[in-house]
Amino acid sequence: MSDTSKLLTGGNPQIAKGDGDDVVEAYLQAVPGWKYPLARRLDEMVMEIVPDVRKAVRWNQPFYGTDGATWFLSFHCLTRYIKVAFHNGSDLCPLPPVTSKQARVRYYHVFEDTGVDAPQFTDWVRQASALPGAALFKSAE
Description:
The protein has helices at 21-30, 35-49, 118-130, and strands at 6-7, 13-14, 18-19, 54-58, 61-65, 73-77, 81-86, 106-111. The protein is an alpha+beta fold. The strands form two sheets. A six-stranded antiparallel beta sheet has the order 3-4-5-6-7-8, with helices on one face. The protein has a two-stranded antiparallel ribbon with strand order 1-2. The relative contact order is 0.18.
């Protein structure tokens, strides 16, 4: 963990908001313990699947989009898992397994003992990145 970040409840890094690869890298570097390689793998997989992905950090979590104005995925660390949010997840097939209070959002939880289901995650990211993203905030770029 970097000297300039602190961990919030559940072990999620507190990182200042920003746009671009550097701020997401700061988030990843601050992820603690067993969650670090999983968070790093999620980021790498998204970049492999969507080579021109745009990145930002808001609300202490990395966001991924295709146009810098809308976002298809984000994640954050909790005590027992990493919570991946697909912002238009209700349009994915099969549906990511966990529901949200927000009708269109679906979650995928990544646990230490099971890791990332790479084929399924890859499929969801491909689908999600091809859909219109969710306009959650404006980019600073």
